[in-house]
Design goal:
single chain; 819 residues; alpha/beta; Rossmann fold; 2 domains; ten-stranded mixed beta sheet; binds ligand 26W
Amino acid sequence: HYPPVCNALEADNGALRDAILYHLQYSCGSTKKEATQGELARAVMLAVRDLLTERMLATEKRYQQHNAKRLYYLSMEFHLGRTLGNVLANLGLTTLLARTMEELGVDLEEIREQESDGALGTGGLARLAACFLDSLATLDMPGFGYGLKYQFGLFRQELVQGYQKELPGRWDTEHNPWLISRPDEVFAIPMYGRVEPSRGRNNRYAPVWQDQKFVLGIPHDMPIAGAGGKTVNTLRLFSARSADAFDIQIFTANDYFQAIRHQLFSESVSKMLYPSDVDDQSLEMRLKQEYFLVACTIQDIMKKYLKTGGEISNFAQNTAIQLNDTNPALAIAELMRCLVDEHQLDWDNSWDITRATCAYTSHTLVPEAYEKWPVQLFEKVLPRHLQIIYEINHRFLHEVRLRYPDDENAPTRMSLIEETGGRQLNMAHLAIIGSHSVNGVAGLHSQLLRDNVFPDFADMFPERFSNKTNGVTQRRWLYKANPPLANLITSAIGNEWIIRAETLSRLDEFAADSQFQKQFAETRNHNKRSLADHIMRVTGLVINPDSLFDVQIKRVHEYKRQLLHLLYIIHCYRAIIEDGEPPQVPRTHIFAGKAAPGDPAAKLIIKLINNIGQVINRDTRTRDMLKVVMLPDFGVSLAEKIIPAADLSEQISMAGTEASGTGNMKLAMNGALTIGTRDGSNIEIMEEVGADNFFTFGLDADTIEELRTENSYNAWDYYADNPLIRRAVDCLDSDMFCQEEPGLFRDIFASLMYEGDYFFHLADLESYIDTQQQVNELYTHPASWRKKAILNIARSGKFSSDRTVMEYAETIWQLKPVV
Ligand SMILES: CCc1ccc([C@H](C)CC(=O)N[C@@H]2O[C@H](CO)[C@@H](O)[C@H](O)[C@H]2O)cc1
């Protein structure tokens, strides 16, 4: 094990054990004999946290000594996953703790299963933020996360009769062992009220925001350990508390709820994570959550900066702020308010500082995901910020008119205020105007942002637009999640890949080596058997561990086309039962993913997956050739169980819809072969691993764009021309998969045949089926399958979040490692 930390602990035999027993007694008030699993887990986590705390303090000292520039990553969502295993991996303590637990007669695995999944996020955006924090600490860079300490994280998903049922996701029992609460560091956050015009110093116009209601922000710090454990940064999460104690008068008037009404009102700001990643809910509470986050953060950052004794005018030289999508874009207006109103800086200076400090990343291409807030909601909740945004817009549109004197509609197209559909604030426009950098998360995505989504801004500010292709941390997603393969790789090329993923390319020479292939296959079969056991335990379904594991795990959304995968399964099923044509290769189709509670189409897809599974899995005619299973409650920990066992990675979104994807990277890095469209980062994965080590199919984004603008795509053409397509699609119109609820899936049939098949399923189905045939063909040649799989691992180095973070640091944040 590479990091030094464990050597010290190794040497000092018993130190870790003593620390655990100390916390069991003094932090949990329990003894070894009586301790519950939960208490044991807390004692272990507190003991490990102690190691992190001292390093966190040392890291902070180091940054102060170097007066280092700091990066603040603002995100409404962080999907951390379980921390214990990750810290053990990064500090090289896994074996030592396993041995210590053995001495204490406790099974480390059971302890690890105790920890919640840290699901403070909905999808890829949230997990990417967590991978970035791991890379920043590993690269010894002063990078800090800022988010909300939701009491309820992402809902837990149960499948009841095949339907998704949402249950509260209690991520944060009051005492999450990793969090260090800072109750003395309270931030008073003003909302509501009104703005009085008045004259300030040297008679300058200085509006006064008054009669606000205040909510208090309490910080809670999560240590983020990098590989090696030398650098430990923090993720600061804010929880909301009411400013006014409950009103004793009203209480004595025994109207308890009236007495605490305001308390509940303000504390609900950080009550729960909004579960949707489809449409912006533009709800007052969501706006308050976003503002609460940025207001606490800006106050905290400014306080820290002024403590360094730095000049306010040099703020941008010492501070970088990354906006993780539009959700924290209010940081731009809040920083302006802080500089102009609280530090009396002049507007232009403040604007230059704000723009030089802020940078914006877009994570979506789905138009309805772009946040637009009703102006009157702003008037009510954030009257001063609305004024500032009007001023920003006024000055900006002046610039636009100067720049495009002949294009009279340019101001309307680029304005922060959209007049159509009730006056709305376009948060993406604010994010672009108030930032010095705008990036997409994959080559195609960044191109589409320039050409289709923000063409006017790309023309006016070409230097601001760049691409930063996503990445994932190989420490959690390979080293921790897949020890058999990680050890095999290390035995072949050493362990440098853990901190330098590009060295994985040394595996290239082993790809065709039969000995290495054999060992590789053993790691995979081992993982497939433990996943088969897990599936058996959770669903009762027995699957064939030697079948091809065909995996589609991600949020359920129409654009991600889980339905296309299902149409292929239906095609195979009918080929077996009607044509007596068994597939060349037995397959197990493994689905997992949550649908936004407010997305009925996605929820019906989940029901269809489970009903198709029900019918096929108990059909004796298909018994060992075809199985379909959906695992409930997909999140980081379940992904870590499924990914090491996946043979085929389904990345089949309609070209031009998936901004990047990151699951595709995790699966390729673990040796799965990808069947994918030319969408998001699939294109770059194919470029890196080689087209003959990647199964691609379907229309590309330009063709779809063309067909859409010409409105010349007609699903009936494909339905009429291809009897196999017709046979598969007709199942949705029949009750083959919904005997008990006849007609249940007619809406899906209608979405394909009567509502224009918006996501081009039928246009891609034939080439998808053909490509799946090639997959079967190859799977019957294990040596060449394994060669391609090993080449996918060898050439996945680019998709490490270390590479992504280094690109952000060099070209957007001007951030340097501090060692
Ligand atoms: C306002 C509702 C809302 C909330 C979240 C979002 C996110 C943008 C959704 C998201 O998670 N996007 C995913 O971000 C990943 C990381 O960059 C990409 O890899 C995925 O392609 C993208 O869907 C959209 C809309």
